[in-house]
Write a structure and sequence with these properties.
The structure holds two protein chains of two kinds. Chain A has three helices and no strands. By secondary structure, chain A is mainly alpha-helical. The longest helix of chain B is centred in the last third of the chain and has 24 residues. The chains are: A mainly alpha, B alpha/beta. Chains A and B meet through helix 1, helix 2 and helix 3 of A and helix 9, helix 10, helix 11 and helix 12 of B.
Chain lengths: 69, 465
């Protein structure tokens, strides 16, 4: 995704959510979206999104052992 | 009182229970320390003098009347200002929420400490809405590291660490979503406990990220950490993730030592991107414990990434209405991250939540082979206030994001962790994480106590010096 695409995402999503983003804040916002994009790439690379069940309320110890591979 | 007051919670409670000093005397000494130095440190945002005096007098009255005293009789403490304190607005480090109506009730953990005889001195500084690893705050100023006031305390529980490290109080409460107890404990040379996710009820605290929020204590000794932690335990149905488990007291367990425990040192991800001093501290701890096993935790980078996404998305959703109405009233260092988080595709968040189940299984497999894993708490010692980047292996990395690289993968799956300081005389401390399987806080503190007994923290808990 290009810088222009990120700018477009910011404009469209901010309007959709009713957020007003001052021009001087936008470079930082774009930078943080790029950081998140890198994080998402790592997570999507695990394949978990298509193969695992979400656990939004975690119960530690409830999931049995599994291999990383 | 001619002798200096005792500095540990355990000794204060014993002293007060014996009648060797009153809770009021202990309180007044603590207030004098705060008055003398907190202008320089910036630990407190609110001091509850009248309430503290009332609580101290209640303890003294109970002793005079011959009624039994609690295990924390007369122990002064303070809480991160995201804990509700009856009569005060819950700032959560912000300007916006500071204008909210005063809380009608105390947070549940405060009520439990009060029932145990502890005396609340006030609310402590923190990074805005807990989205912080530095202890800096644009509205209230930074909490300053008592070991070197030019340096960061770490955050977001910066005031909590500062208050304990400065000797204002022997114990304090904080919160930890991605490292906000463990990072400031490391920078300020303290012990901290992030219990298992769901162990301590969060009732009456201002949330940050529901999926990852934990509460826990700071102290200058492992015994104090255990003493307070035991008082805090117990189910509460008001917190939907609080586990239906009976309290499992561990204060009597911590002296059992580390013999018989299978301990490994984390390698790979947990040895990359750190300053040599952080790794030397970890190696020193391993040597003291006689640990030679190593473990490379698979997918730790992905776990950290998923924790980042969940935090960014959930935290931003929580504050969306504030971002719409009053974006200019946020701390600039948190606002732009919150705005970015509000714009993320939902699929990223869902993928992160799904990976959480996978990584929990990865860690469960490792805890079949080991009882404890040791890892660094932070990649560096305390940076200078205002510092924006770190130099690691000759490359500059953003400081704020980098401080949590070792803590985030662990809290992502709710594992219990003791933060343990490792400090050479005259040097800044480093911190290590003592990580155990879910619900084994006892094991964390046994190993922490063994490291403490070995003298890895060149600080005297009796004096705080």
């Amino acid at each position: 995704m290009s810088a222009d695409d990120t700018t477009a995402l910011i404009e469209a999503s901010a309007a959709n959510l009713g957020l007003t983003i001052a021009p001087e804040w936008k470079p930082n916002v774009a930078m943080f979206i790029e950081v998140a994009r890198g994080m998402a790439r790592l997570v999507e690379g695990t394949g978990a999104a298509a193969s695992a069940e979400a656990e939004p309320v975690l119960t530690p110890g409830a999931t049995s052992a599994c291999s990383a591979e | 009182m001619t002798a200096p007051p005792p500095a540990t919670a355990r000794n204060i409670a014993r002293t007060v229970s014996r009648g060797d000093a009153s809770a009021e005397e202990i309180l007044r000494a603590a207030l004098a320390r705060i008055d003398a130095r907190d202008g320089e440190i910036g630990a407190f945002t609110d001091i509850t003098r009248e309430r503290a005096l009332s609580e101290a007098k209640a303890v003294d009255g109970a002793r005079t009347a011959g009624r039994p005293l609690g295990p924390l009789a007369g122990v002064p403490y303070a809480v991160k200002n995201l804990y509700a304190i009856a009569g005060l607005s819950t700032r959560a480090g912000s300007k916006i929420s500071a204008a909210d109506p005063p809380a009608e009730h105390d947070a549940l953990l405060i009520a439990r400490l009060r029932a145990a005889g502890a005396v609340l001195l006030g609310a402590l500084n923190m990074g805005e809405y807990a989205y912080d690893f530095t202890g800096e705050n644009a509205h209230y100023g930074p909490s300053r590291n008592p070991l070197d006031t030019a340096r960061m305390t770490g955050g977001s529980s910066g005031g909590s660490a500062a208050a304990v490290a400065a000797g204002f109080v022997p114990v304090a409460l904080g919160s930890d979503t991605n490292g906000s107890i463990r990072v400031p404990a490391a920078f300020c040379g303290l012990y901290g406990l992030k219990p298992t996710y769901g162990r301590l009820p969060r009732t009456g605290t201002f949330p940050f990220c529901d999926s990852l929020d934990h509460l826990g204590p700071f102290a200058r000794s492992v015994a104090d950490l255990a003493l307070v932690y035991d008082v805090l335990q117990g189910h509460d149905a008001s917190d939907p993730v609080c586990a239906r488990r009976a309290a499992e007291p561990i204060a009597a367990e911590i002296s059992k030592g580390s013999d018989g425990l299978r301990i490994a040192v984390a390698t790979g991800y947990f040895r990359a991107d750190a300053e040599p001093g952080a790794l030397a501290a970890l190696d020193r701890a391993a040597a003291v414990l006689g640990v030679s096993d190593e473990v490379d935790i698979p997918r730790a980078a992905e776990a950290r990434a998923a924790a980042f996404l969940i935090t960014n998305a959930e935290g931003s959703a929580l504050h969306l209405e504030r971002l719409r109405r009053r974006p200019a009233d946020f701390d600039p260092d948190t606002r732009d991250r919150f705005i970015a988080g509000a714009l993320l595709p939902a699929s990223w968040y869902v993928a992160a939540q799904r990976f959480r189940r996978v990584f929990e299984g990865v860690m469960a497999e490792l805890f079949q082979r080991f009882d404890v894993i040791l890892a660094p708490a932070t990649p560096t010692s305390a940076p200078l206030l205002g510092q924006k980047t770190l130099s690691i292996d000759g490359k500059d990395v953003p400081l704020r994001a980098h401080m949590g690289i070792y803590t985030q993968p662990i809290s992502f799956v709710g594992l219990p962790v003791a933060a343990v300081p490792v400090r050479e005389a005259g040097a800044l401390p480093h911190g290590i994480q003592v990580i155990a399987a879910p619900w084994r806080e006892d094991v964390c503190l046994r190993v922490a106590a063994a490291l403490e007994a070995a003298g890895l923290n060149a600080i005297d808990p009796a004096t705080g010096a």
